[in-house]
Amino acid sequence: MAKKLVIGNWKMNPSGVAQAVRLIRAIGKGVRRYKKAEVAVALPHAFLHLKLPSSLRKGAQDLFYGKGGAFTGEVSGGMVKNLGARYVLVGHSERRALGDTEEIVNRKMRAAIAAGLVPVLCVGETARDGESHYLHRVKEELKSALKRLSRAALARVVVAYEPVWAIGEKAKGALPPEEALHMNLFIRKAFSDVAGEQAARKLKVLYGGSVTPANAGAFLAEGKMDGILVGRESLDSKRFLAIVRAAHLAR
User: Fold this and answer.
1) What's the pLDDT tens digit per position in 81-114?
2) What is the pTM of this model?
3) Which of 11, 87, 93, 112 is most buried by its number of CB atoms within 10 A?
């Protein structure tokens, strides 16, 4: 059975290198006992130079689609890869809110693949509606992001489902685990339309929406998710490790 994948997204945290190093050490030490889970941390670009223990995979939170040139403030896929990253988040809801269009997300996906990174494509609706229009939105986000990717490239993609309305301290409500299963199957079907059934069966689908130690196990078991994308809880080593433990024990 494939390992569950848990990715901690630190966002724009912590404020200093010393805090980042302490958190890395605490998480790296703790995950050693959970051999049935693969654990990564998506670091801010300012911390990508930090060395991670062998028990952790390094990830980045974003990349630019250009290889180099006059793009002040941007970071290329090659830079991210050279700093030791394996994963990179693409199309996170917070990046989309800051202006990443579907075209930009697709260009970033292709740049990630070209750099040898594993893109973690984030898709998800900002709100639910009674007529299921949100499903069309998720499907379009997925298909648009995967345009012009080869079959070999599609086999490397990870998809993270993040229902935006269920994320954060001010979330209007949590997604029930059984509904996570419905979205898992829906995403696989949409992925199958682009990449084929075999690739869809092998696809890793992660859940990211106000995940806590209390509900992580249900999203993995009842939602049949292949892993978890963790936001604020990844900044607390004990709570993050409790989520990793749930992934380790999941079947």
Assistant:
1) 999 999 999 999 999 999 999 999 999 999 999 9
2) 0.96
3) 112
Q: Are 147 and 101 in contact (CB under 8 A)?
A: no
CA dist., res. 196 & res. 34, Å (int): 33
**Tokens read off for 160:** 């993270």
Give the active site residue among 92, 141, 233, 248: 92
Contacting residues for 65 by C-beta, under 8 A, at least 6 apart:
104, 107, 108, 110, 111
- Rounded to an integer, what distance in angstroms lies between the CA atom of residue 248 and that of residue 98? 35
- For the question of residue 162 being annotated catalytic, the response is yes
**CA 192 and chain centroid, separation:** 19
Query: What is residue 98's three-state secondary structure?
Result: coil
Tell me the backbone φ, ψ of residue 37, rounded to 5 degrees.
-130, 140
Query: Could you give the CA distance from residue 43 to residue 20 in angstroms, rounded to a whole number?
Result: 9
Distance CA 41, CA 22 (A): 13
Cis peptide before 14 (omega within 30 of 0): yes
Q: Shortest CA distance to 224 belongs to which of 207, 208, 241, 200?
A: 207
Catalytic residue list contains 131: no
Domains defined for the chain, CATH in brackets: 4-249 (3.20.20.70)
Residue type, 183: M
Q: Which one from 38, 162, 233, 248 is the annotated catalytic residue?
A: 162
Length of the chain, please?
A: 251
**CA angle in degrees (0–180, nearest 5) for 220-21-67:** 80
